[in-house]
Amino acid sequence: MLLHLLNRAPSSSSVHQDVLRAMGEEDGLMLIEDGVFGAVSAQVQHFPGLEGRLFALREDLESRGLAGRCDARVIIVDMDGFVALTEEAQRTVSWF
Amino acid sequence: MRYALLVLGGPYSHQAAHSALRFAHAAIARGHRVGTVFFYHDGVYNAAHFAAPPQDEPHLVDAWRELQRTQGTVLQVCVAAALRRGLLDAREAERHGKSGASLESPFELTGLGQLLDIGQTHERLITFAP
After folding, report:
1. Is CATH 3.90.1600.10 the classification given to domain B2-128?
2. pTM surpassing 0.95?
3. Which residues of A touch B15 (CB under 8 A)?
4. Which of A7, A84, A87 sits opposite B129 (nearest CB)?
């Protein structure tokens, strides 16, 4: 299982499409930095079929004023949870 | 676990260095070891010896030094990326006929081959990009 890191908003970059094409069935996707814009309800449709394995970093949501607008399908994790996800994954792949 | 971080983003222009530092602190808090941080591309500016940000802002260069001092984290800087951007230690400065060193210990200039070694010697390698 791989953990993919994405730091681009789906509205400003199409790299999320490359991520989705590259993801295996068990892989997780962690949204960090501007990637967390993809976690709000109006944007989360860019990440279909990832329920239970789509994550967003709490502090990056909070610093952008999005903490209360994160879609229920996204699992919010703090930095500690982010590290835990990298422990579980064999490798981590960054997309930018 | 033994972690390594690859930082590709310059300080004060992208979030990458901040994210990497916070990740490092969180990993340590979970009982991991951050063995090496490798700076590449514009990430080499994290090693700028003369960085002097305003006192009420985070001092990223000092924060990396502190990580080395308290955790023994090795701070490696890609020499090819650094020389292009004017980051030279005393030895390179002399070799290139420059006065003064813009990169000093605990940051170490090293070859890109070290990054391959890091991939072999650390259990996790996490990339923080601009």
Report:
1. no
2. yes
3. 7, 33-34
4. A7
* Predicted ipTM beyond 0.90: yes
- Which token pair is A58? 């709490």
- For residue A17, give both structure tokens: 């499409």
Q: Choose which CATH entry (3.30.70.20, 3.30.1330.10, 3.90.960.10, 3.40.1260.10) describes domain A2-95.
A: 3.40.1260.10
Any idea how long chain A is?
96
Which chain B residues are Cβ-neighbours of A80 within 8 angstroms? 26, 29-30
In sequence order, the 6+-apart residues with CB closer than 8 A to the CB of A12 are: A34, A37
Q: What percent of chain A has pLDDT over 90?
A: 100
Cα B129–chain centre separation: 13
pLDDT tens digit string along B78-104?
999 999 999 999 999 999 999 999 999
Q: A75-87 as b/e, with b when 16 or more CB fall inside 10 Å? A: bbbebeebbebbe
